[in-house]
Amino acid sequence: MKKLVISTFFVMQVFFGFAQTTTEITGKVVDSKTQKPLQNVVASIQNTSLTSLTNGAGVFVFTEVSKGSQLLQIKTAGYKDQLLTVEVEAGKVLDLGIIVMDEDVTSEQQLSLVTITDNDLEDDNSGSENTSGLLQASRDVFQQTAAFNWGQARFKIRGLDNEYGNTMINGISMNKIYDGRPQFGNWGGLNDATRNQEFTSGSAPSDYTFGGILGTQEINTRASIYRRGARVSFSGTNTNYSWRSMGTYASGMNTNGWAFVVSASRRWAQEGYFEGTDYSANSLFASVEKKINSRHSLNFTSIFAQNRRGKSSPNTEEVNNLKGFRYNSYWGWQNGRKRNSRDKDIEEPLNMLTHYWKMSDNTNLNTSVSYQVGHIGNSRLDYQTANSPDPTYYRNLPSYFLNQPSSYVPGVDGNGNPILTNPNADAARVNFLADGQIDWNAMYSANTTPIYDSSGNEIGRQPAKAKYALYEDRTDDKLWAANSIINTKLSDNIFMNGGVSFKRLKSHNYQLLTDLLGGLYFEDVDPFYQGDAGQSDLFNPGRRVGKGDEYGYNYNLYATTFDAFTQFKFTYKKIDFYLAESFSRSEYQREGLYRNGIYANNSYGKSGSKIYENFGFKGGLTYKVSGRSYFDFNGAYYTKAPTLRNVFSNARLNNNVTPDLTSENIISADASYIFKAPKFKARITGYYSKIMNSSKVSFFYGEGLFDTDVVGDGNEDSFINEIVTGINKKNIGGEFGMEYQITSTIKVTGAASYAEYKYDNNPNLKINDDAQATLTNTSPITDFGPSYLKGYRISGAPQQAYSIGLEYRDPKFWWIGANANYLADTYIDISNVTRTTNFVIADPNTGIGFDGATEAAVRKALRQEKFDPVTLVNLVGGKSWKVGNDTFGFFASINNVFDVTYKTGGFEQSRKATFPDYVADNANGTPSFGHKYFYGFGRTYFVNFYINF
Question: Rounded distance, CA 63 to CA 46, Å?
């Protein structure tokens, strides 16, 4: 008994001795203006697994902190991060007192960023946005520079499209199954409601998904995490839209366990920066949470974002020289207003239910189910037995006549010297300069016939068979998605994340007639084909269609996807590392609703299912040199299913599966040195990625594609479906970002990117020609062999970018900043078919080349165009005031201060597919089918006024 008492006493002494040496850090976080405590602020000890959330009084507490110098980070949405150096002594409590959080002005910059990156001019068939939206709220200096300063020139992080990143809302991926890219327009205009975001860069670990090689973005709409209060703002700009109004209210969690958030906005313009680009967008958001008990909560989120906007045309150098870079061929005057023929209409509301389950102190399980239904429509003009309504149709331009020797006639100059003149080209130039827009009135007239009185005088017009009609390429999607994510702490040093997700898509794709343009009906036939081949649906031949009818093509796409991942993270004093693996399964199918006359035996009904099973592995480690500096390494290898759009290469007409299509193989590695101190932060990264076996499907009219002996005289030219498979791309480069707080009010930032994005092989090119299809030849494909792309640069983004910025922030809550940016090495998108032997070989049987097609001449013709470098200067600034408990403020920015004109992208036209045709088209220096270009905005402004209640 005596021994037991002594032993018990000894244990109690040890316990009390340990309790008396507890090491703690505590502090209280408040808003700099209102001095009110901030709840749910994340405090973390850098290079450790220690994190803490502030309570309702704004207080956080850490226990069991290692002694010595530590870096404490304080961060929350809408405020600037705080990075504090603290000295921890064993057995003592370190009370940091009040920590003041300043408003993050970049949250205002995000409002202006969306107007810059909202364009999607490249692709009518895609519903997705190819933007820098993935990075717009990142805290990383380099990524912020890429979004805010370089985004206007279409800079892409590491040269990667958004399909190689993953954007999520409450854990459910928003990347479209159709093309792999997120449709940012589905929550456009709801900046206040989508501010709660988490990011990873590259293949770094995410708690929500295996991810891609670009990074991840998780948007959290849980109602209880929004700061209580209201916000109203009004903006003016001269970019995609002119005006924007927005209001948001968050209730915070009440005593009955309820919290809700509502937000609404409207953006509109009669005409945006480019001619004829009207804009109208309305957005609504609601999130409601019920806290059932301390372990369970339910949250319902509903998002509605309707957007309709007029597109802007890419144009050739000839057109830009005549009309200017803001010219847009898609619009024309009608009843005193500009009407755009190429509108994009998006309306895909999203409803989501999320269950939050705190299974234990160390384990959380979050499950979401969502349903999204709606449509995407891209309008354009249809015409039959009539001239093209496109004002830039090649026969309407001077180049058409300049390249015709028969159009030249003898004449004399002002001095009486004999010269050759081209009156047809001169007349085309005069006509195009005088108007050059779509003639809506002429189309209405063509769709009607005159009414005469008894004297033969025209007294009106009556509807007749329409030669012109306006229609939409329409996609109506119904998408069910479910996702479950578990996060658990297995031990003090080991954390596990895992998740499963499921999606089921039905996508109805069809041609929808929206306006007969004064006509009586439109015939559902293809006038370029005869007999049954001209029928869109052999079950309803010769059908007459009216407004609201489906015609042309009509089919469903089905997709069922499943993926799962597990991830283990290990955290130690000097080294952190992680390992992750994933598995996915994708099943695709097409169902034809029309029996097309060209493909009578393989267009109607369901195709076979196409299944792709894929896997992935990734890992990385962080070596902590000290509390301020560390090295970071990441590597990944995974396979990725082809997107739905590429599986059925000619889905509008038949059930054929794209030949030689396989999953992509993706390799990625990066290494970084990172330094973080209260006044100076920097990151330098080197990266390498290789994407293998990718594919590309496109449609165009090509000349000189087929051998006369095979297809017959006059059939060498055709509207074709180009299929390129087995494409390898290699991206290698470096990134650098830094910021230095020179004084308490002055900060300098810098960023740089240098890279090479190249094609790494010569993929295979096949062409599907509908005109060669028969009842027995249901897959009329010609193999053109390799397309010699290796060594060419990948288009679409600057491969060099540099930025330097200076910011002054006054203690009286006003600030101003300026940055200068240099962007270079942007290349045009090259034609694939002109890089095949078809371009140079006259006779495939003998291998004899075209006359004049010497190596030097061909190299000159196929030299990839590199755009001129551009320097862009931007100014930003703002001011805020505190009146009682409310905050008033404004933000203003001017981009491209010196109004520089610059190209952001473009593509080579593929129509002239042989060397002789190319030479003839370029004979006079102004080709009819020259390269087409996209341009960036000139000088633009954005002003936002707001009040926070």
Answer: 15
Give strand pairing partners of 740. 680, 748
d(C-alpha 48, C-alpha 576), whole Å: 9
| Residue type, position 383, single letter | Y
CB-hemisphere CA count at 13 Å for 491? 7
Q: Please, are residues 391 and 432 in contact by the beta-carbon 8 Å criterion?
A: yes
The whole-number pLDDT of residue 135 equals: 43
pLDDT for the residue numbered 83: 76
* CA distances for 753 relative to 222, 897, 902, angstroms: 36, 22, 19
619-652 residue pLDDT tens = 999 999 988 899 999 999 999 999 999 999 999 9
Contact 215, 205 (CB under 8 A): no
Per-residue pLDDT, 833: 96
Do 667 and 636 touch, CB atoms closer than 8 A? Answer: yes
Give the pLDDT of residue 105.
Answer: 58
Which pLDDT score, from 0 to 100, does residue 709 have? 63
Tokens of 96: 């940091």
Q: What is the DSSP letter of 820?
A: E
Residues 6+ apart with CB under 8 A from 41: 29, 53, 54, 58, 60, 74, 75, 76, 101
Our measurement of the distance from residue 593's CA atom to the centroid of its chain's CA atoms, rounded to an integer in Å, reads: 31
Q: What are the structure tokens assigned to 854, written together?
A: 């010497």
The predicted pLDDT at position 51 comes to 78
- Report how far residue 789's alpha carbon sits from residue 761's, in angstroms, rounded to the nearest whole number: 6
Task: Quote the CA–CA distance of 867 and 901 in Å, as a whole number.
Answer: 12
- pLDDT value at residue 414: 81
CA distances from 917 to 74, 422, 648, 850, 931 (A): 64, 21, 31, 11, 15
Place of tokens 């144009």: 315
Q: DSSP letter for 235, please.
A: E
Which tokens in the block code for residue 57?
Answer: 């009084």
Question: In 3D, which of 545, 653, 559 has the Cα closest to residue 609?
Answer: 559
- β-pairing, 172-173 vs 165-169, is antiparallel
d(CA 662, CA 726): 8
Place of tokens 């064993």: 90
Range 295-331 burial, b when 16+ CB lie within 10 A, else e: eebebbbbbbbbbbbbbbbbbbebbbebbebbbbbbb
The reported pLDDT for the residue numbered 786 is 97
Phi, psi of 919 (to 5 degrees): -60, -45
DSSP state of 867: P
Phi and psi angles of residue 18, each rounded to the nearest 5 degrees, phi first: -65, -45
Give me the torsion for CA of 941, 145, 123, 514, rounded to 10°. Answer: -40
- pLDDT for 89: 80
Range 125-128 contact pairs with CB under 8 angstroms and sequence separation of 24 or more? 125/378, 125/473, 125/645, 126/176, 126/178, 126/179, 126/181, 126/645, 127/176, 127/178, 127/179, 127/183, 127/346, 127/348, 127/376, 127/475, 128/162, 128/176, 128/178, 128/179, 128/180, 128/181, 128/182, 128/183
pTM of the model: 0.89
CA gap 367, 365 in Å, rounded: 7
Angle, helices 141-148 vs 106-117, to 10°: value is: 40
Q: Per-residue b/e over 625-659, b at no fewer than 16 CB within 10 Å?
A: eebbebebebbbbbbbbbbbbbbbbbbbbbbbebe
CA distance 420 to 469: 42
| Structure tokens, 409 | 């006639």
Maximum Cα–Cα distance across the chain: 133
- Listed as ranges, residues in the chain with pLDDT below 70 are 1-22, 33-34, 47, 49, 77-78, 103-138, 708-716
- Cα-only R_g, the chain: 31
Question: SS in 3 state form for 493-524?
Answer: CEEEEEEEEEEEEEEEEEEEEEECCCCCEEEC
* Cα–Cα distance measured from residue 552 to residue 207, given in angstroms and rounded to the nearest whole number: 46
